[in-house]
Amino acid sequence: MADRPIRVLIAKPGLDGHDRGAKVVARALRDAGMEVIYTGIRQTPEMIAEAALQEDVDVVGLSILSGAHLDLFPRIVDLLKQKGLHDVLLVCGGIIPDEDMATMQKMGFAGVFGPGTSTQDLAKFIRDQIATRRAGATA
Amino acid sequence: MDRESVEQLRAGNPRAVARAISAVERGGAAARDVIAAIFRYTGRAQIIGVTGAPGTGKSTLVNEIAKLYRRRGQRVGIVAVDPTSPFSGGAILGDRLRMQDLAGDDGVFIRSMATRGNLGGLASATSDAVKVLDAAGFEIVLIETVGAGQSEVNIAKNAHTTIVVEAPGLGDDIQAIKAGILEIADLLVVNKADHDGAESTVAALEMNLNLKPKAENDWRPPVLKTIATKGEGIADTVEWIGKHRAYLETNRLLESRERARLRAELEMVVQRELMARLVHGVNGGKIETLVEKMAAREIDVYQAAEMLLGA
Q1: Residues of chain A contacting residue B96, judged by C-beta atoms under 8 Å apart
Q2: Chain A residues near residue B20 by CB distance under 8 angstroms
Q3: Options 1.20.120.450, 3.90.550.10, 3.40.50.300, 3.40.50.720; CATH of B3-251
Q4: Do A83 and B112 touch (CB under 8 A)?
Q5: Domain CATH code at residue A28
Q6: How far apart are CA A29 and CA B295, in angstroms?
Q7: For chain A, how far is it from start to end, CA to CA, in angstroms?
Q8: How many Å lie between the alpha carbon of A91 and the closest alpha carbon of chain B?
Q9: Predicted local confidence at residue B213, as pLDDT
């Protein structure tokens, strides 16, 4: 059976309204052949988890520039798990200080993409990760 | 589909509903399995289609209509379709952006779908996704089509009531008498009614409706004005959806629409299956050879098709 297109939720949790980066990423992933559900700014953790659940996405991508990632992200990760979404690939971008990288990875974020990331690298990262997961799921 | 998944789906468990929709989207055996398990539980939902040009405010209108049904205690499922890129196969599904008021409500389920190459304004799996929501107990199912042009009319075969959304300033009265999308409207909604030109849009639509010869018992679509961003005109719209439903019921049209819908669905699936079997059965090399001959102008498309079908 042919694989379905990779489905990605792109959301901006918290209160900063700078969504240019999220839109650039959404557009780039579209051009990489993915179905991108774009929910925009000022999303609560509950809204993000609910959208991921209903849309049955493979990937949740969070963009944040406000500095609230250590407050908001754990809540999102918990809610996703509560809803049974254990196998979703988590990636994030925006402004994440270097000293938080280890925390982010421990939280379950497979990729953290800061300013200057090439969108092609991001698309390739997602494709490779999902390919590995899908191969694992059918093995 | 195992019994437990079916039970969870019928209980409205969102994870079960989401995965069943993914399965019908995937098509093939996965889709057949889900539909075989749930089809007997479908046929209860009231299906409302919302279509219109890009930017007329379909998503915002759907959001407002859904909120009103929720206030009446009815559970609402939404399928929102956006186009797939013909180049990359990717899509931006952005309709949820306008439906954030509905977040956090267990009585609402929103699913975005990409057309995945299907024409006509819907994805090929849209009607199956509606069945999943129907079986899951959503009493109202709203389908939002892709931003439609003039001939994306498939929604009319999928919904009990079709709303065509217009906005001021999109065209003159000649646009209003053209064939196509305006003909499928059970309700015509002029959204953004606070913008310049709303009255002339309403007048052009009314004039067009007045030109149609009236037969007894014909449904005449109302031309309604809304400002979806402010929630204005929504109660009126929902009231008219109810009136249309009552009209279908009293004239026993629900049954004939349902049968027309099932027939259209059957024809579509047969078409798709025949095509799939044909392409699968014929080796790719044969099609390539025929295409080469066509390119060399040795045979035309009808002759090529005949050779393929005769094989």
Answers
A1: 37-39, 51
A2: none
A3: 3.40.50.300
A4: no
A5: 3.40.50.280
A6: 35
A7: 14
A8: 18
A9: 82
